[in-house]
Amino acid sequence: MKLPTQCPSCENLLQVSQLTCETCNTRVNGNYPLPVFLKLTPKEQEFILQFFLNSGSLKEMAAQVGVSYPTVRNQLDDMISHIKQLQNP
Amino acid sequence: MKKNVLLNPFAKIEDKKLLTLGLIAYIIGIFIAFSMKIELQILRINPLSNIDLPKILLNHSVITICLSLAFFGIGKIINKKTRFIDILNTVFIAFIPYYISLFQNINGYLTNETEKVMDALRQGTILNHTPSFLFIMVTLVGLLFFIYYIYLLFIGFKTATHSKKIWHYVLFFATLVVIDLIVSMIINSI
To answer: Which residues of chain A make contact with B162, given a CB cutoff of 8 A?
Structure first.
């Protein structure tokens, strides 16, 4: 099941407001912002996962995905600027 | 998939494959220009009556080197991560439709038709001169290949430099025009 990160009403980012222990059913309430990784789109998360699994080699990643090196590098640059935006809104 | 490759081969095909294809096209292109008796420049072609292979080879090398260096220079200004190989591949691959367009001068067809138009201009009978349907078609097809050549230069440059802003595009087209004038001067002085 996909974790929703955007409000379906106003499209702003959601926060975690409740955590539950599956064993004793203890509930913790509060306002916890989502980690940066979870704020990314599923496509961006998949990109980071592939980047990690390819030991950070963009060339290997490009060969695996079937696109050219500049395309992968451009995607990475777009993601870097997106993450910077999320860190400094 | 194939359609996408034609729209942007630089986004899909590996750089080494592009370089190999580009180098083969470069060599074939020189022989096409020689057999069609056409002098290639960046934004124009000149049908010539006398032409020799070493001159075509030299001209074409000057065009490729100047264009690649100029685009690499502005590419580095736009994005420091720009690689020379991606720019060189852009120039090599973009020339392929340009080479194909040279076939419009089979048996000196373009030269002869252009000469007829020039004669009509000299004699002042240009308003009565009606170009043949074949000439119009050949010119239109040549124009389409030329537009595709400029498109490939642009899309290859865009992919290599990750350019997105209007001033990046203005810089690209301004460089193209300026480098065409410079290369034209170099070629004419050789």
So the answer is: 70, 73-74, 77
Q: Is B2 on the interface with A (CB under 8 A)?
A: no
The reply to whether ipTM tops 0.90 is no
Q: Does A17 touch chain B (CB under 8 A)?
A: no
Q: What is the pTM of this model?
A: 0.86
Judge whether B12 is closer than 8 Å to chain A, CB to CB: yes
Q: What is the 3-state secondary structure (H, E, C) of chain A?
A: CCCCCECCCCCCECEEEEEECCCCCCEEEEEEECCHHHHCCHHHHHHHHHHHHCCCCHHHHHHHHCCCHHHHHHHHHHHHHHHHHHHCC
From the list A66, A69, A74, which residue is nearest B15 (CB)?
Answer: A69
Sketch the domain layout of chain B as residue ranges. Answer: 2-189
Give A19-49 pLDDT, tens digit per residue: 999 999 999 999 988 888 888 888 999 999 9
Residue positions counted in chain B: 190
Asked if the C-beta of A79 comes within 8 angstroms of chain B's C-beta atoms, the answer is no
A2 Cβ partners below 8 Å, 6+ apart?
A: A42
